[in-house]
Amino acid sequence: MPRSLFFVTALFWLSTNAVQATEYIYRELMANTLPSARCEDRTAAIATASKPYNMDRFTKRFCQTQGYGWHVDTIKDHGMPECSPCDDKGGQQCYIKDVVVKCKLIKPGSVGMLPGQG
Each residue of 51-107: pLDDT tens digit? Predict the structure, then answer.
C-alpha cells in the first residue's frame, strides 16, 4: 500500500509541474567588449580579451543592460578580436567585436507569480 501511495503522489506532482511550465521571452543582442586595461603585444592582448572569464562577464553585462531579470541563455557568436595601438613600443589593447548573445527573461505570470491565480 505505501508504494502505491508514493507512486500516485509522485505522478500527481509530476503532472502539476508539467502544466505550469516556465515560459521565457528571448532577445538577441550584438555588442562589443571593453578593451583590455594594459598595453601588451598583439597575441597576449588578444588572449586577454578572449579569456572565458571576460566573455562570461561581458555577456552577462550585455543581458543585464536590458533590465531586471534578464540573463544569458547562450552565446551565439564569440565575435572577432580588434586591436588598436596604445603606446610607442608596439603595445596594443584588444577587445572582442560583434559578440552575439541570446538573453532570456521569465515571462511574467508564467510561474504563478500573480496572486490569486494558479
Answer: 999 999 999 999 999 999 999 999 999 999 999 998 878 899 999 999 999 999 999
With cell 579569456, the residue in question is 51
d(CA 33, CA 54): 8
Amino acid at the residue 59: T
Question: Is the sign of the CA dihedral 46, 48, 53, 58 positive or negative?
Answer: negative
Single-letter amino acid, residue 11: L
CB 97 within 8 Å of CB 46: no
For residues 34 and 50, what is the distance between their CA atoms, to the nearest angstrom? 11
Is residue 99 within 8 Å of 36, Cβ to Cβ?
Answer: no
H or E segment and range at residue 46: helix 42-49
Q: Tell me: the pLDDT tens digits for 18-54?
A: 455 789 999 999 999 999 888 999 999 999 999 999 9
